[in-house]
Amino acid sequence: METKGQLSLDMLIGLTVFMLSFIFIAQYIPSIFVVERSDIALYPLAYRTASVLAEDTGYWTNGTANGTDWENHYSDADFRIGLAIEPDVLSVDKINALQNYYNTAGYEAVRTALGLYDPQERYDYNISLQLFKSNSSHPVYARNDSQPLLLIGKDIPNYRNVVRYERIVSYGNATKVATISSKVDTPSTRTYTFSVAPPLSAFVIVVEGRNVNTSNSTPWMKVWLNNNIQIIDVRGDNETIGVFDITDNVNAVGATQVDVKVHNVRGYVVVTNAGNYIGGRIGAKLVVCVW
Hints:
Layout: H1 9-55, E1 59-61, E2 66-67, E3 78-80, E4 84-86, E5 89-90, H2 92-105, H3 107-114, E6 125-130, E7 143-144, E8 147-148, E9 151-153, E10 163-171, E11 178-181, E12 185-195, E13 202-210, E14 220-225, E15 229-235, H4 237-240, E16 242-245, H5 247-253, E17 257-272, E18 276-278, E19 281-290
Parallel strand pairs: 5-10
Antiparallel strand pairs: 1-2, 1-3, 4-5, 6-9, 6-19, 7-8, 10-19, 11-17, 12-17, 13-16, 13-17, 14-15, 14-17, 18-19
Helix pairs in contact: 2-3
């Protein structure tokens, strides 16, 4: 009688297939979890950074005094960065202070101040203010004169897993990033000339009502670009009183001069490169990228 154990051919083939499959899966699964762990870490980090910048006023202390105006004390005190006057309304002074701190103290100092590190890993960042039409493939930065209002951090890589978080914000002290003319207030007929350098992010004429000194004369307004292209000719309360956003018109023809001729109106003109004019405010996107 044969007493030796034997394995059938089917069992050997099955065992071989099982082992090969197990080896493949064991090699493939770790790469999946590496990506997941990266996403899990990066998304909350980008969200937290954007939230702190957009919602927190910041704070400083030197041991004997303290306050929220860290933008006046970041060179001689311990401080926490925050850009807000109130949630999602940013202080231009604080924005300028963050940009200046980055320019003088450097990349690592800002990374430490924003908490973009832990004992195991340091995270890279790119933080900016961009116009609403901006996107990841074609960034369009909010500008003050010819320079980005806020642009700090490294160039965003194409070969890494980058998390991008956007937050809609507005400026609390818009006169520091825009030319706001209140001269459009006259019972007579006057022409106001604006010299501009397109492309602009906003050229908006706001007519709030009739001039208080004249109630009978019909209000009207005409607007020309470069002395010869008329784009607005309105008359009467219903047509003249309102908001006229001519940004696209100015940019389309590359206008360097805008003439606004008005009669019996009260209002103002907003010209800026720092954001888009929406709902009576100048707004932009706070964009935080982390990798």
